[in-house]
Design goal:
four-stranded antiparallel beta sheet, elongated, mainly alpha, 759 residues, 7 strands, three-stranded antiparallel beta sheet
């Protein structure tokens, strides 16, 4: 058999070429990649060179080779297809896109008849469009000719119309993302198209363009007139429903679509501030992410015509009486389209609202006589979008930054694609609340029961007699409390600006008269100040004497100097904190004084007992007699107000007969009185030694637990006792206070039996 010989030394020795190859392979990888790139571009492949030679020969010959079609490209899988013209699924803007696209292709192809919107264009037809075609089409629409000069007027279309035409054509392009470069890309993204749009914008600024049809912002005088004209109508929708929708749109700086698509479950009680509401605006056009629709606060306004809490409470109480379980906040209907399966009820109420505004408000001579704008700004008139412009413009005039208005209006903010913005949240509580406070005309307020009335009008009474329909539909206690107080204020008010259905007003006033209260208006409006400390939002009530005087001499609140107002609020907070610390130190000094007195008395007794003097012997004999005469563990009562336990003596587990103050009650609970055992240390057997002792302990425990709860919340015992006396009266006896606390347990059972001032 033939076998291969083993390799010799000469066979394994590398050649000179192999050495060079190995040395080259040891070069850095970066240099090798650079060399490959240079080789690729310096010497093209044979196929590329042959294709270039054929193209050059065809261009020189000018024969059939020049007109030969290029090899077809493979577009399979790129996801593009010409959109279908389906009226059931297309939006209003998309339908307009088809009209502009067919108009452009009619201009390009010049057929005998214009293309209908149902015409389907192929990819090859769209790829033949160039920037020159789009530019000439825009020039004909705007100037009426292809070549225009500096003296020509652009009367056919305005700057914004050309931008919309550009957007419409770009929607159909196969290559809509890249700009136009080297004969490929999106023809609308080119210098030629952008130049004609810029030229038209300059001509409009020089009064050489078409008249503007942009809707101008409303003014406050026009909005007030609109509310007045609406409430003069006899129907419920014009008096109650549409004014509420208008103020809702103004408060959220929203579009008419945003307002009509709100569902009934959107408004909720605020989690932090018990006097406010909150809601999400999920249907906003700029909301494409769940994070972009955070909860936004709703506050009351001092002007009743602009108070969203008051209008919303009246509207919901009457709306839910006729429609107990609707889906949407402002319409009871549900109209599902059979093809697109889209609910058309919000669009129906939107169209109805717009038509009612045109008929009742905008076409009235009174509305046209309001001269609040310049003639140049009044060319386009007003529309439903004028409210959003009015709200944004009003907030800007109040001094808010563009960023804060963007947050309240949920506009897209240009973040530049920086990574840091992915870590910064979109919820800005202070900016949102600050703009909301400025949109509360007259200043932000909250509705509260007057002092002394809150004990006579529990919240259950308000739920039952003031807002029974709202309470039946909503289980949110915070929302029902806020709206209940607002509706009660509206029903008991004599202001002509407040429109309340007669059946609701009569029902509330009849129930209120049965309470036999002297106060004619049980609700008061308390002004609020919105400020921030570090990263925390604070909304602080302002007393009548704490308002900052504005330039006009009146109270300013949020409308005045906010910096000065914030300083006043912080000064009050520091003063309150100082008072609490003083009370805490006073309480500690009191306890220290009692402890030191106890220890000094014990020390003196020991010195007298073991001093060896005649007095000491007498004391020693008396002590021995007491121990001899007293059996072991027998209870001895001392009358020297000592709080210590002598050796061999057990404290008496007994309550005092008639404590004269709450301080005595608290000392009895924590330390004991007259040498007795502290009530906090009583065992179950000692608390129930008799029915009289059990009843006494049961009544006093209401006061003890109230003070203990306030102490656990951070207050001192002195502050807690002061709160209780302020709630139930300074002249009220401790026994009467026990009875009142026991009654409040039943009155405020939904709030764990705690009155508002003791929470």
């Amino acid at each position: 058999s033939f076998t291969t010989p083993p390799p010799t030394h000469n066979n394994i020795m590398p050649t000179v070429a192999a050495k060079k190859k190995a040395k080259k392979s040891k070069a850095p990888a970066r240099k090798q990649r650079q060399q490959r790139q240079r080789d690729r571009y310096s010497s093209p492949s044979n196929a590329v060179a042959a294709a270039a030679a054929d193209a050059a020969a065809a261009s020189v010959a000018g024969g059939a080779a020049a007109s030969a079609p290029a090899p077809p490209r493979n577009y399979e899988g790129d996801g593009w297809e010409y959109p279908r013209y389906d009226l059931a699924t297309l939006s209003k803007n998309e339908k307009a896109y088809f009209d502009y696209m067919c108009d452009l292709m009619t201009f390009f192809h010049k057929p005998d008849e214009p293309y209908p919107p149902t015409k389907v264009f192929t990819r090859e037809e769209l790829l033949l469009l160039t920037p020159k075609v789009v530019r000439d089409w825009m020039a004909m629409k705007t100037f009426g000719k292809l070549d225009y000069g500096p003296g020509d007027k652009s009367l056919g279309a305005r700057y914004h119309t050309l931008g919309y035409m550009k957007k419409a054509v770009s929607w159909f392009m196969p290559n809509k993302r890249p700009g136009w470069c080297d004969g490929r890309g999106n023809p609308t993204k080119s210098d030629a198209v952008n130049k004609i749009i810029a030229d038209v914008k300059v001509k409009e600024s020089r009064k050489m363009g078409a008249k503007s049809r942009v809707k101008r912002p409303l003014t406050k005088a026009e909005f007030d007139l609109e509310m007045k004209l609406m409430r003069e109508q006899p129907d419920w929708e014009s008096q109650i429903k549409f004014p509420t929708m208008s103020v809702w749109q103004f408060n959220f700086i929203g579009r008419i679509d945003d307002t009509c698509h709100h569902e009934l479950t959107d408004p909720k009680g605020h989690k932090t501030f018990s006097f406010a509401l909150q809601s999400k605006v999920r249907w906003s056009k700029n909301v494409v992410d769940e994070r972009q629709c955070p909860d936004q606060i709703i506050l009351g306004a001092d002007d009743p015509s602009w108070c969203l809490l008051l209008l919303l409470g009246i509207y919901l109480e009457s709306y839910l009486a006729a429609h107990p379980d609707p889906k949407y906040l402002f319409t009871e209907h549900v109209n599902i389209h059979p093809v697109s399966h889209v609910d058309q009820a919000p669009d129906n109420i939107k169209n109805k609202w717009r038509q009612r505004l045109k008929k009742v408000v905008w076409s009235r001579p009174e509305f046209e006589d309001v001269e609040c704008m310049d003639e140049d700004e009044n060319e386009g008139g007003v529309g439903t979008h004028s409210r959003r412009k009015f709200a944004a413009d009003y907030a800007s005039n109040c001094g808010h930054s563009e960023t804060a208005i963007e947050i309240r209006g949920r506009w897209k903010r240009l973040r530049g694609g920086r990574i840091v913005f992915q870590y910064i949240g979109l919820k800005k509580s202070f900016e949102d609340a600050s703009v909301c406070g400025s949109l509360c005309i007259g200043g932000p307020i909250k509705y509260e029961l007057k002092e002394g009335i809150d004990a006579s009008i529990p919240m259950n009474w308000i739920y039952q007699h003031v807002i029974p329909n709202i309470r039946r539909r909503f289980h949110d206690t915070r929302l029902c409390t806020v709206l209940g107080k607002a509706v009660l204020y509206a029903c008991m008010s004599e202001d002509d600006k407040i429109v309340v259905p007669n059946e609701i007003r009569q029902r509330v006033r009849t129930a209120y008269n049965q309470l036999n209260l002297e106060e004619t208006q049980p609700i008061e409006k308390i002004r609020l100040h919105i400020h921030r400390m570090n990263d925390q939002l604070f909304i602080t009530p302002i007393g009548e004497g704490q308002l900052v005087a504005g330039a006009s001499g009146g109270s300013a609140g949020m409308l005045g100097t906010e910096a000065v107002q914030t300083l006043i609020i912080r000064q009050q907070q520091y003063q309150q904190e100082t008072n609490q610390r003083f009370d805490s130190q006073a309480s500690q000094l009191y306890e220290l004084r009692n402890y030191c007195g106890c220890q000094f008395r014990r020390l003196n007794n020991n010195i007298r007992s073991f001093g060896g003097t005649i007095e000491g012997s007498f004391v020693r004999q008396r002590t021995q007699q007491m121990v001899t005469a007293t059996p072991q563990n027998e209870v001895v009562v001392r009358n020297d107000n000592q709080q210590e336990v002598e050796e061999g003596i057990v404290q008496l587990a007994e309550l005092s007969h008639n404590p004269t103050s709450l301080h005595d009650l608290w000392r009895e609970y924590r330390f004991g009185l007259n040498g007795r055992k502290p009530a906090i240390q009583f065992t179950r057997k000692e608390r129930n030694v008799s029915r009289a002792v059990a009843a006494k302990y049961y009544r006093r425990n209401y006061v003890w637990q109230t003070i203990q709860r306030l102490v656990n919340a951070g207050h001192t015992a002195e502050v807690a006792i002061e709160k209780i006396r302020r709630q139930y009266g300074y002249s009220t006896s401790p026994t009467k206070i026990m009875i009142l606390i026991q009654k409040d347990k039943a009155i405020f059972k939904d709030d764990d039996g705690i009155p508002p001032n003791l929470r």
